[in-house]
């Protein structure tokens, strides 16, 4: 009989399993709340579930927490985690805290969806290590749950408020599992993170962008654009050869027409591409699109040869877009003192093991 991952089960699925093995429906609700809301990491922490029932449940449900093997803390409060999975593979995720003027601070977790990445963007540390496999639903959700668990040891009232699926991997190439993870993380008996506080970031899987508009129009979308010309984008993001800009922008337009939600277009700026002509090409490409440009000074990553531009270049690049009527902002730098770029901590760890 199949052994199912507990952290990847919806409440209805747990109810069905409980009824199949002779347990009451309320056990499923208790189980779901212990795992998805209270973020416990073991059967023994479920205090109101009897030992006999826990044993019975463990014959049908696999319950394992991610193994935290490294944590880095930035002076700005950002925390970066390296987790080891059951098969020995490792993944990263990041917690970013932003103080707000309202009654609640914003706590954003950047989640990985794959071990490594098949896209191979030229500026990304994750892609340098290649692709290993997709993460399961339990492994995706587990990153948020385990960060919640660890932070609550210091702050019992801690709650994740925002999620971005833009850690290691291409979320839209693990589409079904990512959407189920979103269901779990949004559940009212779980962490209850609002759909509109979650964002999926993609390198440009055009058909899945259109499908996302149909399947979950509430979740935000960010597109890693980075260049406005196919010849340049082919080198930066090999995915562009499969889904060139014409096809990608058509999918983006369809997404905004269906959802009425604007897309965030991510543009990584280097000392080489932060030029006026690049900004002008970007403005032409995005004219008439419902979107916002987020300029990102590239993180220096050993092996890519790319360097970040100086602040004045970034300012001038943004000015060109603003003058063309394009909404634009520059990403607030977080965690630069702890190598916060996706894949850097994992590469460092694996290098130490060699």
Automatic annotation (TrEMBL):
Coiled coil: none annotated. The active site is at residues 92, 342. Its cofactor is [4Fe-4S] cluster. SUPFAM superfamilies: Radical SAM enzymes. Its EC number is 2.1.1.192. Its main location: cytoplasm. Residues 103-337 form the Radical SAM core domain. It is an enzyme of class 2 (transferase). GO terms for cellular component: cytoplasm. It catalyses: adenosine(37) in tRNA + 2 reduced [2Fe-2S]-[ferredoxin] + 2 S-adenosyl-L-methionine = 2-methyladenosine(37) in tRNA + 5'-deoxyadenosine + L-methionine + 2 oxidized [2Fe-2S]-[ferredoxin] + S-adenosyl-L-homocysteine; adenosine(2503) in 23S rRNA + 2 reduced [2Fe-2S]-[ferredoxin] + 2 S-adenosyl-L-methionine = 2-methyladenosine(2503) in 23S rRNA + 5'-deoxyadenosine + L-methionine + 2 oxidized [2Fe-2S]-[ferredoxin] + S-adenosyl-L-homocysteine. InterPro entries: Aldolase_TIM (IPR013785), Elp3/MiaA/NifB-like_rSAM (IPR006638), Methyltransferase_A (IPR040072), RlmN_N (IPR048641), RNA_MTrfase_RlmN (IPR027492), rRNA_lsu_MTrfase_RlmN/Cfr (IPR004383), rSAM (IPR007197), rSAM_sf (IPR058240). PROSITE patterns: RADICAL_SAM. Gene3D superfamilies: 1.10.150.530, Aldolase class I. [4Fe-4S] cluster binds at residues 117, 121, 124. Reaction proceeds by a ping-pong mechanism involving intermediate methylation of a conserved cysteine residue. Belongs to the radical SAM superfamily. RlmN family. This is Probable dual-specificity RNA methyltransferase RlmN. It comes from Desulfosporosinus youngiae DSM 17734.
């Amino acid at each position: 009989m199949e052994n199912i991952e507990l952290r990847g089960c919806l409440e209805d699925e747990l109810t069905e399993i409980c009824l199949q093995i002779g347990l009451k429906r309320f056990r499923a609700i208790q189980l779901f709340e212990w795992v998805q809301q209270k973020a416990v990491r073991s059967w023994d922490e479920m205090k109101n579930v009897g030992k006999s029932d826990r044993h019975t449940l463990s014959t049908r449900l696999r319950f394992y927490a991610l193994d935290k093997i490294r944590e880095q803390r930035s002076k700005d409060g950002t925390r970066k985690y390296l987790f080891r999975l059951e098969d020995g593979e490792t993944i990263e995720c990041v917690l970013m805290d932003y103080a707000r003027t309202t009654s609640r601070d914003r706590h954003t977790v950047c989640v990985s969806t794959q071990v490594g990445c098949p896209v191979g963007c030229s500026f990304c540390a994750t892609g340098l290590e290649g692709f290993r496999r997709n993460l399961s639903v339990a492994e995706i959700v587990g990153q948020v749950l385990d960060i919640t668990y660890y932070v609550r040891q210091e702050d019992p009232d801690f709650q994740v408020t925002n999620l971005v699926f833009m850690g290691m991997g291409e979320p839209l190439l693990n589409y079904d599992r990512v959407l189920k993870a979103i269901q779990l993380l949004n559940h009212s008996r779980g962490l209850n993170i609002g759909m509109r506080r979650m964002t999926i970031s993609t390198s440009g899987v055009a058909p899945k962008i259109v499908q996302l508009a149909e399947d979950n129009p509430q979740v935000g979308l960010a597109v890693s654009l980075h260049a406005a010309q196919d010849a340049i984008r082919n080198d930066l993001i090999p995915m562009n050869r499969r889904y060139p800009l014409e096809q990608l922008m058509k999918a983006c337009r369809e997404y905004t027409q269906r959802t009425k939600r604007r897309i965030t277009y991510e543009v990584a700026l280097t000392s080489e591409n932060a030029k006026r002509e690049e900004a002008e090409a970007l403005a032409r490409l995005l004219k008439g699109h419902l979107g916002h440009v987020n300029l990102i000074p590239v993180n220096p990553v050993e092996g890519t040869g790319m360097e970040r531009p100086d602040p004045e270049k970034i300012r001038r690049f943004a000015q060109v877009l603003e003058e063309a009527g394009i909404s634009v902002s520059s990403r607030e730098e977080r965690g630069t003192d702890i190598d916060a770029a996706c894949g850097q901590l994992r590469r460092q760890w694996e290098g130490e093991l060699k």
